[in-house]
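@channel sequence for tomorrow's demo:
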Amino acid sequence: MKIRTYLKDKLLVIVILIILIVVLAAMQAAFKVDASCIIASVILISISFFSVLSVDYWKRNKFYKDFWMKLDHMDQKYLITEMMDIPEFEEGRILKDALYEIDKSMKEKINQINKNNKEFKEYLEMWIHEIKLPLASITLMNYNGNINPEKEKILIRKLEQYVDQILFMARADAAEKDYLLKKCNLEGSVNKAVISNKEMLIESKISVEKENLDIEVITDSKWLAFILGQIISNSVKYVRDNERKIKFSAHENENKIILTITDNGMGIPPGDISNVFEKTFTGENGRKVSASTGMGLYICKKLCEKMGHNIRIASEENKYTTVYLEFGKETYYSM
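structure tokens (generated this afternoon):
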């Protein structure tokens, strides 16, 4: 810290002191105080004031000089608060406390980024394993010349779902830029999702029922189709040996519109129901059927949160699973 910079910072205080000294000298002169006494008092006050400034400058200069010296010699500069001495002046202590909070916040952010990167890497490894299966099947069919168009469509649809998943995960931090909220007819969205997954539904012999779907909601049609596709995919994955069906229905109340998707598949064990939206959670059923990444419902939950929707699940093992998609009645988007 340069003296000139320090004095410039204290300029207002110095100006106020000079004004006070002038006023004091004028008052003393008005009361006929001896000139030598006036001069002595001015000198004494000035010496006292600049002595205080000198001590204050010395403390600050010592602190900041030590601070910058340690900072220059550190590779991990964000650890500076662990190397700083406790300052002898209040502003220094405030600075140290502020740097500590900033350092703490940054460490938490870095830890969160490292955690997210680790989770994404683990998910990517599972995703690669999952996507290799339909790719290998398509390659084998073409190599043997035993092409089954319907089977090939199912495998291609699975690849599309996996690509949509990895696309969302890659854009997770800025996914809201990829949303376009507007009026969307539920029946049209359901029909689109069913048609996209019809080969899987037909192969698994799952019938589709629809009821009261001619309702408009505010959503992003692309991501709603992804959510519905994931729910259909889960229904196909966890079927039972019975008369298989999946039912789409909707109703509305004063505040929201609720789309329900119900199947009569394996259901969800009571111990798993509270965890189905957690990242990479596969649960008991996930270990019974083919390998699963446990990311589908997690992504559905995140998408709903981004778009202002709500998703929840009710289920009874070996009886049914119902997914509720709740859409708010936002008049802002209806204008």
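heads up for whoever presents: The first helix runs from residue 3 to 9.
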